[in-house]
Design a protein that fits this description.
Layout: E1 5-6, E2 18-19, H1 32-42, H2 45-53, H3 59-67, H4 72-111, H5 117-123, H6 125-146, H7 150-167, H8 180-191, H9 195-210, H10 216-235, H11 237-240, H12 246-266, H13 280-288, H14 292-304, H15 316-321
Antiparallel strand pairs: 1-2
Helix pairs in contact: 1-4, 1-6, 2-4, 2-6, 3-4, 4-6, 4-7, 4-9, 6-9, 6-12, 7-8, 9-12, 10-12, 12-14
């Protein structure tokens, strides 16, 4: 099994538990084609995050333009500040489309017969690692986006200005870059509090609906197994000690939370009910054992971006743990 090892000789609560080497897993020959496709997408993820982190917005220029509607120079200054930002936002949106296709390719590989999802994760460690990297990127992107209200303010100003110019029968060069159809799609994307997570949830549900001969359990079992993988690595000292950096620890926590949220959106009754294959109490406990400032964002993600937390089927104990 290479770097993917059975953690225990017995099954805990009948859930699969594995150790996955997120740092060193390499593709086998059978994985290489899909692995190369996903790697080509993921190689842009760090530059996307750096670009988003550096996004300052055009707030002062927009404010001056709105307060002085008859000052042509201030209008031009605001417009010239916003246009390159909109092009940047388009790049982020287009990356979400690439990520959506990448996730569906991975799900196809990790859920197809004759192997069970557990067997896939044992045999295809490098693809499991890429799946984890997509989730890690998604939570980081959405954390940054939620902390940056300038994104929606800039795009709203862009759309208002474009609409005004269209009424006046003016055509602006940027419309060749971001036409009305593209602007509509981008607007829906950025209106979401967690746009990348919404993209992945939709991609996973689309994958399930398009593959009617594939039981939904194949997909949800893949997600619950990945959650167990992360939880065991985090709570088992001998496995945590294999991480060569604190970044891997944070990576593992983000992935665990990302998979829980994805499972909660895709599974008919979600991650929090008693019949869930995810040990939610154990996962929350693992998070709460870390330094509070490092996990508060992840706990907030479970509080505010899951779908079924407030269902009647969720135990009071789990709700109390997340208060």
């Amino acid at each position: 099994m290479g770097n993917l090892l059975k953690v225990l000789t017995r099954e805990i609560e009948n859930y699969p538990h594995f150790f996955l080497d997120f740092e060193n897993a390499q593709p086998t020959e059978g994985e290489r084609e899909i692995w190369n496709q996903i790697s080509a997408v993921l190689q842009d993820s760090e530059s996307i995050l750096a670009d988003l982190q550096a996004y300052k917005g055009a707030g002062p220029e927009i404010r001056d333009a709105i307060q002085n509607p008859n000052d042509i120079q201030l209008q031009e200054t605001a417009w010239n500040a916003v246009c390159p930002l909109v092009v940047r936002l388009k790049r982020f949106y287009e990356f979400s489309i690439r990520l959506e296709k990448a996730l569906q390719s991975l799900l196809e590989s990790l859920t197809c017969p004759p192997y069970t999802p557990t067997q896939h994760l044992e045999r295809e460690q490098a693809l499991a690692k890429e799946f984890a990297e997509i989730l890690h990127f998604t939570l980081r992107f959405d954390e940054l986006k939620m902390r940056n209200p300038a994104i929606q303010n800039d795009f709203s100003y862009y759309r208002r200005t474009i609409s005004r110019n269209r009424i006046n029968n003016m055509h602006l060069d940027i419309e060749n870059e971001v036409n009305n159809e593209m602007a509509n799609r981008m607007s829906l994307f950025y209106a979401e509090a967690t746009p990348m997570l919404k993209t992945l949830s939709n991609a996973t549900m689309h994958f399930v609906s398009e593959n009617k001969t594939l039981p939904i359990e194949n997909t949800t079992d893949c997600l619950s197994t990945m959650t167990s993988v992360c939880k065991v690595m985090l709570e088992t000292p001998e496995y945590r000690s294999r991480f060569t950096s604190e970044e891997t620890l944070m990576f593992c926590m983000r992935v665990m939370v990302g998979v829980i949220i994805l499972y909660d959106h895709v599974h008919p009754v979600g991650a929090f009910c008693k019949t869930s294959k995810i040990d939610m109490k154990g996962c929350i406990k693992v998070l709460k054992e870390q330094a509070p400032d490092s996990v508060e964002g992840l706990l907030n993600a479970l509080r505010f971006t899951t779908k079924h937390l407030n269902d009647e089927s969720t135990s009071k104990q789990i709700r109390a743990m997340l208060q």
